[in-house]
Fold this sequence. Notes:
The structure holds 2 protein chains of 2 kinds.
Chain A: H1 6-15, H2 22-39, H3 74-77, E1 84-85, E2 88-89
Chain B: H1 9-17, H2 23-41, E1 44-47, H3 49-64, E2 76-80, H4 107-114, E3 118-123, H5 157-164, E4 170-174, H6 181-187, E5 190-193, E6 214-218, H7 221-231, H8 249-254, E7 262-266, H9 276-291, E8 295-299, H10 307-322, H11 343-354, H12 357-369, H13 376-399, E9 402-406, H14 422-426, H15 433-438, E10 441-449, E11 456-463, H16 469-486
Parallel strand pairs in B: 2-3, 2-4, 7-8, 7-9
Antiparallel strand pairs in B: 1-3, 4-6, 5-6, 5-10, 9-11, 10-11
Helix pairs in contact in B: 2-3, 10-12, 10-13
Amino acid sequence: MPGITREEVAHLAKLARLELSDGELDHFAGQLDAIIGAVAAVSDVSDADVPPTSHPLPLTNVMRPDEVRPSLTPEQALSGAPAQEQQRFKVPQILGEE
Amino acid sequence: MTDIIKLTAAETAAKIANGELTAVEVTEAHLARIEAVDEKVHAFLHVDREGALAQARKVDEKRAAGEKLGPLAGVPLALKDIFTTEGVPTTVGSKILEGWIPPYDATVTKRLKAADVVILGKTNMDEFAMGSSTENSAYGPTGNPWDLTRIPGGSGGGSSAALASHMAPLAIGTDTGGSIRQPAAVTGTVGVKPTYGGVSRYGMVAFSSSLDQGGPCARTVLDAALLHEVMAGHDELDSTSIDAPVPPVVEAARNGSVAGLRIGVVKEFRGEGYQAGVMQRFDESVELLKELGAEVVEVSCPSFTKALAAYYLIAPSECSSNLARFDGLRYGLRTGDDGSHSAEEVTSLTREAGFGPEVKRRIMLGTYALSSGYYDAYYGSAQKVRTLITKDFEKAFEDVDVLISPTTPTTAFPIGERADDPMAMYLADLCTIPSNLAGNAAMSLPCGLAPEDGLPVGLQIIAPAMKDERLYTVGAAVEAAFAARWGHPLLEEAPAL
């Protein structure tokens, strides 16, 4: 399988919401290329007729009765918020100005 | 006078229960020890002196009032900083959560408090539990009490170092690829990764949800069992929590024996990269098990050779998704919110400033493995390897009761040696990762010091899922036999701090 280029790492960083510096891009590109080269060993089994395992347990949805029960107060829920207003999380502008 | 800090958790609990010691005395002795040596070791990120003493007073009052005490009442514990603690900082070793005070307790935290355990504070760890040396902590490394210039293992290096330096008789870790067992191995302590689903993950900051598992760390097998029993069991707040009774681990730890057991030596865990002294102690352990009446056979698990590769696709993939929640909007760090950046830009600037290099590497690696065009080749193949590894275990456990191997290929390496060489660092978890991928139970316990460097070596025992008690049956027998041979606990040989 092909290795990973600096440009691809820059693209991944953008997808992953990481504002990497140029120095970090240089540094990580080489390291990620080496790691990907090593983990590519799994591709030996890519064509094998083996079911994938995503989890050690057979997962099923766990439901509870839909009833009111104690939970965090708004003050508790907002206690770690970087900014808040009117019992809400205050965030930077999300939509463009019209 | 008995040195309080050298007592086991079982002894401490018994002395508090019979009035020989008070919980406050015990807590103060450990706080004094922390005060005296943690400047050198740096096992703790936060010491909760007031909270610990308040809990200790409560235990003493309960006893005075004749109320029933928990099995570990008054015993101090060091809690890995990955579990939320109401009103007490929880950082996960990351700048992105610096100063965060959780508004709720993790289920594990809650159960410890309910069992009258005294939580001394929060221990250092690799950021988001990603690492094998605790060097990836944003708050600086922890030293190994056997040699402060060496790593105490990771990610739970703070917990293992606290035990080995007698700052606490009990600690809690989490094990995604070996983060309980490898630190135990390199510090001469005991660590157990319970069966996946055995211990609630509620309030345990997620790294890789299908692999993460909390577990007990201690200086003896019995102490680990007592803690295991307190922290384990079904929790309706974790949908992957197993709804079945906790395996009888304490009973097993009190009745150690290997007579008549069939024990498998994993053939693949040996060879290039394994330190000679580690293999020497491991081979001696095999001989010891035979002397104790076990039948030891060699077992082949060919897919284990691909476990590391599969793990470094699966864990980063899950982490890239799990860590998306750190967006700088609802809690934790926020950077660049000066009116000139959009929410998306603030998120990117926050994550850049808040995450360290290993976390960034893994997020990008996971993003890559999950991207369209690569998904089948990488993540899909890794999931197939996971199936093959599970099948290898199933086949092995048809023939043997438990499997054994060295816990980690080398003893503690010097701080800095592998810090910027991810692949070299990843090799530390070569023998521990398969159990995380399959979700079964595993323990590390001391089996001696490597002759070439005088540092602890760990013996790993692996049991089928929900057969955790086998770890303790075998572990207790091995521990007792080694204690008889050495004449004292291994930690007695550690240099004074």
